[in-house]
Every structure is written in structure tokens, then in C-alpha cells.
Write a structure and sequence with these properties.
By secondary structure, this protein is an alpha/beta fold. It has two domains: about 5-65 and about 165-345, QueA-like; about 70-150, Thrombin, subunit H (Beta Barrel), CATH 2.40.10. It has seven helices and 17 strands. The chain has helices spanning about 140-150, 165-170, 190-200, 240-250, 260-270, 310-320, 320-330, and strands at about 30-35, 40-45, 60-65, 65, 70-75, 80-90, 95-100, 110-115, 115-125, 130-135, 175-180, 205-210, 235, 255-260, 280-285, 300, 345. Strands 2-1-17-16-14-3-12-13-15 form a nine-stranded mixed β-sheet. Strands 5-6-7-10-9-8 form a six-stranded antiparallel barrel. A two-stranded parallel sheet has the order 4-11. A hairpin with an 8-residue loop joins strand 1 and strand 2 (about 40-45). Helix 6 packs across helix 7 (about 320-330). It is globular.
């Protein structure tokens, strides 16, 4: 079957796009999408019910990336206004970014950001030239400058500028490794009390790092999904996590990815026996229906945008028809969508 982007469209009332998080991290709803294995396609639950749906010996794999203050406002030498969104900091003096301006800057041109420091645009970068390469004009450190002068980069569908509460709630409680420009939002539902409860009942936890790039919001510009080229993201899987996955496999437990970022990293490093390779790498994996999952048994995720690569991923995992039915149900039942919205627990569709 040759799938098109339109095959992953669905009607979404704008008022269902969550603009603020729930009052409590665990206060969201949870749609358990089962396929036929539980006698019905889905169950309406609360996220705080999650411990009831897991068992001792299961392994939750979290992405411990931390969102950096990646949005800058400034102006070009000509005076024109610019808005810059970092894609990644390459090293202390170089970064890749997206630029919003009336006219794209030319290579060699300078921009003053945050009324504080100058950068020079040195050329285009990325597989399709979607990003601009920047270098600092004077000695400095992009990491420190981002923290001091940058703004938290909320997703484009959140209509308010970052507020004080966003500084906390658009980070997971276990965020450790700075480098992302978008949060791994499935993890936003967990608080320390839930993590303690899960560990007390014998559910194990492990961590990896995948730095989410601004390319995650890039719309698809093709009709057939087979023609799409994914953006690349950095990830790293430590030895302890690989060992935990191998032990879970050997004991008959389930590997549960918390978020599509965790899943993409695990599947990118996966072996045929369900174990994973240790180390740092880049991934541009594009998961669509028909993909054979090697590592992940269950997935915790939020609701994704129409026509998005992440909607294609969850359709591959849980089954195309199951996801279409689940999303129709979620709209009818007024679930909250996207980064600050409600969550799903997906069972893998073994029929794929």
C-alpha cells in the first residue's frame, strides 16, 4: 500500500489543543489503546492509573534530555528584525538554526541577538539545506549565551509566550542533559511521587538521551510518505540502559518507551534479538506502517499533529485502523491534544 500524507489527516477542533498543562503533572487523562486483545479497542483512564497497567519486571525507558533556551530575537546589520530558533549547538562557538526574517540573511552577514552578542551566518546546513549555520563573532560560549539571553522555545501551536510556569512544566522532572529545543512531552506526565510508586512495585527505570530538534515541527512537503526525508537527531544509550533492556528481555518483562523520542532511539540502536547497542549516534529513522519493531513492546505518548511523522509512527506501532479509531474517540471525548495535552498507552499491534 502506497500511503500519502493525507492518509494521516484527521479533523481536530482548535479548542482541543492544550495551551497550558494540567494543574498536576499526573492529572491528565490516559487513553489505553489495546486493539482487540482486551475485548475492545480502547479504555478511558487517568494517568495516575498507570501503575495499575504495569507489572513488576517491566522497564520504563525515559529520555533525560533537557530543553535549552533556544529562541532569540534580534536584528540584521541592515536593521531588519530576525527570530532565531536553534536546532542544535554544535560546539561552544557554532550552532545550527532556523531563521525567520523578511529576507533570509546572506552568508557572511552578521546579526545581533538579544541586544547582547553577534553571530555570523556562514551558510546553509542539513540534508535539504533547511538550517542556517551560525558562528559567534567574538569569543564566547553558545551554551552560556542561550541560558542568559535565550527564551524557552514553546511549540508553535501554543499561543502564549513562555511564562514562569513553563520554565518548570515544559521540562520533565528527570531532565539532566541539556541540548533539546523541544521537550519529550510524554515524560511531562510523570512526577517524583509516581516514579517512587512505580519503583516500589518493581517497575524498573532506565534513561537514554535524544536531543529533540526544531525539525520535529517541520511540516511534510511531499505527497507520498515514501518520498519524505527525516531530520537527524543525536542520541546516546548508556551501558546501564542496554544492560537493563537485556535483563528485561531475559526475564520476560516488557520494554516500555516513554515517548516517541525514546522509541526512535531504541529502535535506531536495536538488534534483532531485542537488545540495543551502546553509545552515541545520529538517527534519521522514519517509522511508518509496516515497520517491524525490535525493541519496544509498549509506548506511552501524547496525541500528535495531523499529517505528522509522529502520527505515522504511532500508526505503525499500534495499527493504522486502531489509531484512527482512537483519535476519533479522543476528539469525541474531548481529550486534550499535543505537548501539554493528555496521554496514550499503546499496545504494540503484533499483527503487523
Amino acid at each position: 500500500m502506497s500511503l500519502t500524507v493525507d492518509d494521516f489527516d484527521f479533523p481536530l477542533p482548535p479548542e482541543l489543543i492544550a495551551q497550558h498543562p494540567a494543574a498536576r503533572r499526573t492529572g491528565s487523562r490516559l487513553l489505553h489503546v489495546c486493539g482487540e486483545r482486551y475485548g475492545q479497542l480502547q479504555f478511558d483512564r487517568k494517568f495516575e492509573d498507570l501503575p495499575e497497567l504495569l507489572k513488576a519486571g517491566d522497564l520504563l525507558v525515559f529520555n533525560d534530555t533537557r530543553v535549552i533556551k533556544a529562541r532569540f530575537f534580534g536584528h540584521k546589520e541592515t536593521g531588519g528584525q530576525v527570530e532565531i530558533m536553534l536546532e542544535r549547538i554544535v560546539d561552544a562557538t557554532h550552532a545550527l538554526c532556523q531563521i525567520r526574517a523578511s529576507k533570509a540573511p546572506k552568508p557572511g552577514s552578521k546579526m545581533l541577538l538579544g541586544d547582547a552578542f553577534e553571530v555570523r551566518m556562514t551558510g546553509r546546513a542539513g540534508a535539504d539545506g533547511d538550517f542556517f549555520a551560525l558562528e559567534l563573532v567574538k569569543p564566547g560560549d553558545f551554551w552560556e549565551l542561550a541560558e542568559q539571553y535565550g527564551k524557552l522555545p514553546l511549540p508553535p501551536y501554543i499561543e502564549h509566550p513562555a511564562e514562569g510556569a513553563d520554565e518548570t512544566r515544559y521540562q520533565t522532572v528527570y531532565a539532566r542533559q541539556p541540548g533539546a529545543v523541544a521537550a519529550p512531552t510524554a515524560g511531562l506526565h510523570f512526577d517524583e511521587a509516581m516514579l517512587d510508586t512505580l519503583r516500589a512495585q518493581g517497575v524498573n527505570t532506565a534513561f537514554l538521551t535524544l536531543h529533540v530538534g526544531a525539525g520535529t515541527y517541520r511540516p511534510m512537503r511531499v505527497e507520498k510518505i515514501a518520498d519524505h526525508r527525516m531530520h537527524s537527531e543525536r542520541f546516546e544509550i548508556p551501558q546501564a540502559t542496554a544492560d537493563a533492556i537485556a535483563a528485561t528481555r531475559a526475564a520476560g518483562g516488557r520494554v516500555i518507551a516513554v515517548g516517541t523520542t525514546s522509541l526512535r532511539a531504541l529502535e535506531s540502536a536495536g538488534n534483532d534479538d531485542g537488545t540495543v547497542r551502546v553509545g552515541a549516534a545520529e538517527t534519521s529513522i522514519f517509522i511508518t506502517p509496516g515497520y517491524r519493531f525490535m525493541v519496544v513492546d509498549r509506548l506511552i505518548t501524547n496525541f500528535h499533529l495531523p499529517k505528522s511523522t509522529l502520527l505515522m509512527l504511532v500508526s505503525a506501532f499500534a495499527g493504522y485502523d486502531n489509531i484512527r479509531a482512537a483519535y476519533a474517540h479522543a476528539v469525541a471525548e474531548r481529550y486534550r491534544f499535543f505537548s501539554y495535552g493528555d496521554a496514550m498507552l499503546l499496545e504494540k499491534n503484533d499483527a503487523i
